[in-house]
Amino acid sequence: MPEAYYSLSLKTYAIFRYHSEFCSQARCILKADSDVVVNVAGVEQLCKAQNATPHVTGTCHNYRTNVARSSDSKFYLPKFIFAVDKYPAYCWGAAYMYSGQNISDLILSATSKSPFLKSENFRRLPEDVTFTGLVRILANVSLEFNSGFAINRGGFHYWCLEKSSPVPLTAHFRIAKNPVKNWDRMKKELNGSTSFWSYDRWRKCRFQGTGYFHLAQDEYDMEEKP
């Protein structure tokens, strides 16, 4: 498989196949890009807090974004491949987590009902739109927003727990892509050199609440899909 942007959907599909066939006892599946730094202990804490209801958790929103129609865009999709002008609600793809009972089997079954296995064009859709949007809807899996997944926002954001320190889950450093330096930044955030009562943490948790909430199930018309 080539190491390329359009291989992401196949790689993500392979994650679910591997989980289903070899480690289905794992409660959660985290997908993270190579330029994302992960607080593994924090993600494990979130995973343990999840119940058996299938969810996708991340920087997820219940509004629909426009499909890129400009050929200059990395995400360009012509209408003959994807006729609908807006994507369904989905989670931004740098990092997100699946959880819940039989989650891999649900996603794999839904994938087989979509054009994914038969259409190269469908597999070239953005991977996050495919698996946290279109396929997720077919699987009847809901979205949960958690601000601890800091995607495309710069710096750190937090899962703001009521009785313990705010938890950064992932950080996405799109410009400074030095993994060692970025991990050092995460370690400083975790080891107390950034105070619990720092202005940044206080401000973000004060105004965002817990930074964690359930989103209503999307009603995207799958009959309009390509």
From TrEMBL:
GO terms for cellular component: Golgi membrane. The keyword Glycosyltransferase applies. GO terms for molecular function: hexosyltransferase activity. It is an enzyme of class 2 (transferase). Transmembrane segments: none annotated. It is a single-pass type II membrane protein. InterPro entries: Glyco_trans_31. One of its GO terms (biological process) is protein O-linked glycosylation. Its EC number is 2.4.1.-. It comes from the Eukaryota. Its main location: Golgi. It is found in: Golgi apparatus membrane. Keywords: Glycosyltransferase, Golgi apparatus, Membrane, Signal-anchor, Transferase, Transmembrane, Transmembrane helix. It holds the Pfam family Galactosyl_T. Belongs to the glycosyltransferase 31 family. This is Hexosyltransferase. It comes from Steinernema carpocapsae. The lineage of its organism: Eukaryota, Metazoa, Ecdysozoa, Nematoda, Chromadorea.
